[in-house]
User: Fold this.
Amino acid sequence: MSPSKNLFQNPVRLLAPMEGLTDPLMRQILTQIASDLGRPYDWSVSEFIRITQHVLPAHVFYKYVPELHHDAKTASGTPIHVQILGSDAQLMAENATYACELGAPAIDINFGCPAKTVNSHRGGSVLLDEPETMYQIISAVRKAVPAHIPVSAKIRLGYTDTSRMDDIRGAIAASGADWLTIHARTKTQGYKPPAYWDKIQSFNALDIPVIANGEIWSAAQANDCMMQAGTSHLMLGRGAVTRPDLVAQVDNHTENHDDSGKNTATLLWQDLIAHQIKFLEGEAKNDVVLVGRYKQWLGMLTKGYAEAQTVWESIKREKNKAVIINALQASVQQ
Ligand SMILES: Cc1cc2nc3c(=O)[nH]c(=O)nc-3n(C[C@H](O)[C@H](O)[C@H](O)COP(=O)(O)O)c2cc1C
Assistant:
């Protein structure tokens, strides 16, 4: 591919990679909801796969991205890109090549992870302080993978501060990356509001599409973000887990209203129940893990749905999946 600002014909809407949150099961559910609401995600990105010493065996790629068994798409047809994280350019290139052989439709490279263990091994956001290494990694991966397969990077605004932004932009420009996703905070700013959407502006000088990310919880914030960042491309993170209809709300045009005026881009609590039950019936190591993960989701849903609070109160100490499913069903009969 040769870099082009106009690579995407329309504004793209992406579901963010979130380790331990948008795992394959959650991706399955959230991409299904988005499709059902008439605004499928253009794609999602896998949780990061850490590259340290060798080319990982196929089973590791399949574990993180089981969608590779199905044309790299979720059941609702949303493509899943493979994200890798590491600092050894050659090794990253070899692993990216292998991921493509296994069917990855695109490779994304993580330069945003703030985790101590990852950063201490020179991976993730710490590399924002090493733009030259970023360049080496992206360009090695770009050269290694087949030309028709896109290679992208996901960054923050910097490690401790934004002082290296110009160097980072230069590294991206020279690297041959096909697009860039920016989480509009530094590593030090973590996940706390606000996100500095306006800081994304200067990256629009690049000859590639720029995707804005960070702190989008509502359609109004999505609009503010697009205005301030100067790009129409968005990646949704925690907001998309809290309100699974956020992606449809963002593009909520008049055609989303049916004859009675009902907003068809809205997913009501009662319509979310079946999806939550599907989650609870999904694949996991065991029920303890699954129930724990479900509670994590329900906790986030309490910020998006008043009804979730009642369910939360009734099941927060519950370990039995069947009892939780009953409580969910009861929450719509009240
Ligand atoms: C629990 C969690 C795990 C994350 N894991 C990843 C990851 O594996 N790869 C990545 O590029 N970003 C990861 N992120 C960052 C998100 O993709 C996103 O950039 C960030 O959450 C900001 O968007 P938001 O404010 O809309 O949530 C993670 C974020 C969270 C909260």
Q: What stands out?
A: The domain at 13-254 is CATH 3.20.20.70 (TIM Barrel).
